[in-house]
Amino acid sequence: MAVIGPSSCRANGRHMPMGSMGPSVGHVSAHHNNNAILAAAQPMYSSLAIGSQDIQPDRPIGYGAFGVVWSVTDPRDGKRVALKKMPNVFQNLVSSKRVYREIKMLCFFKHENVLSALDILQPPHIDFFQEIYVITELMQSDLHKIIVSSQPLTSDHVKVFLYQILRGLKYLHSARILHRDVKPGNLLVNSNCLLKICDFGLARVTEPNVAKHMTQEVVTQYYRAPELLMGAKHYTSAIDIWSVGCIFAELLGRRILFQAQTPIQQLELITDLLGTPSNDDMRHACEGAKTHMQRRPYKPPSLAALYTLSSQATHEAVHLLCQMLVFNPDKRINCTNALAHPYLEEGRLRYHSCMCRCCHSVGGARRFAQDLEPVTTLTFDDSFEKDLSSVHQVKGTNSYFSLAIFK
Ligand SMILES: [Zn+2]
């Protein structure tokens, strides 16, 4: 296990060492592939600010569904950054629009707890444009790696992580963005426990028209909200809060809360804990799923089981968790109200005492920002998607090229 360097934070008079939060990025077997990505990038790509020949890919740090992430050195300032290669993005219109939307979002975000693009490497000519390289801040680990590791995870860690997840998500939701794949692996963490939400491959803008159908093929199954499992045609940002509830429980218990093999079994595990939902609580479900549920034997709720997750599952923790794990999305807590819960008070204080960039120390005293959990007044505008009708158009100078220029 690589230790990313000593770092600690003192808040509330208590000491919370965080130096061992680093991931095991040092064990890379594919080192010989380093030159391959460089060779692939060099002949065709140049950036406005960075010559790609100066970017020295060093080691792969992650393999997402839609690309490979490498750790590289930014020659402008010598800082380590992450380089994400998104290959074969122009195979068809659907995939090219999806990637374009993701990159446009990465360029839009301005929040400490949300990953954003630092730069986009662009090809000199549209004919060579097959893949896209995006540069983002480098984060050493993610919450999944930390949860499955042997590193200690104190209740101070849980609180500061949960605080940042909700803080970032509040910002995303204020921009009208649904993440739709909130899970531990998509929550990047660095050595001092700063957390950033990443991977916007499934994200989209909220759909205000409730009559419009939205795809249900979203969210990794373990973190999928019951309304999605029950075939809801329309859903809201409450699906992300459900995922956060599952992650909160996973942080407390250090195991996946609802780990089922199939979507049907997933729903079984959820109802084992929450009990059989009322008809009103299933109002967003499709008829088939409702009938299925009504035919099942009645189950009483067993929420007290949440106290057995760990000794860290205090009354306050379970009280907040129970407001996230609500079957009916209309009754589920939102980010703003969750952030106001007393359980997160210590996490907020710790974060703003020594981790944030919004507050400042002046003469030994901490001067706190006026708004500790800011939202954006700009909503993400997805109207550009309607005008994109061909792969060539998505590739065109009016899209990626202008994004890079605006960075
Ligand atoms: Zn602050």
UniProtKB/TrEMBL annotation:
GO terms for cellular component: cytoplasm; nucleus. It catalyses: L-threonyl-[protein] + ATP = O-phospho-L-threonyl-[protein] + ADP + H(+); L-seryl-[protein] + ATP = O-phospho-L-seryl-[protein] + ADP + H(+). SUPFAM superfamilies: Protein kinase-like (PK-like). Keywords: ATP-binding, Cytoplasm, Kinase, Magnesium, Metal-binding, Nucleotide-binding, Nucleus, Phosphoprotein, Serine/threonine-protein kinase, Transcription, Transcription regulation, Transferase, Wnt signaling pathway. Activated by threonine and tyrosine phosphorylation. Its main location: cytoplasm. GO terms for molecular function: ATP binding; MAP kinase activity; metal ion binding. ATP binds at K84. Its EC number is 2.7.11.24. It is found in: Cytoplasm; Nucleus. It comes from the Eukaryota. Has a role in the Wnt signaling pathway controlling the asymmetry of cell divisions during embryogenesis. Operates in the AB and EMS cell lineages influencing cell specification. Required for body wall muscle development, endoderm development, pop-1 asymmetry and T-cell division asymmetry. Component of the beta-catenin-lit-1 complex which promotes the phosphorylation, down-regulation and subcellular relocation of pop-1. Regulates plp-1 nuclear localization in embryos. Plays a role in male tail tip morphogenesis. This is Mitogen-activated protein kinase. It comes from Dinothrombium tinctorium.
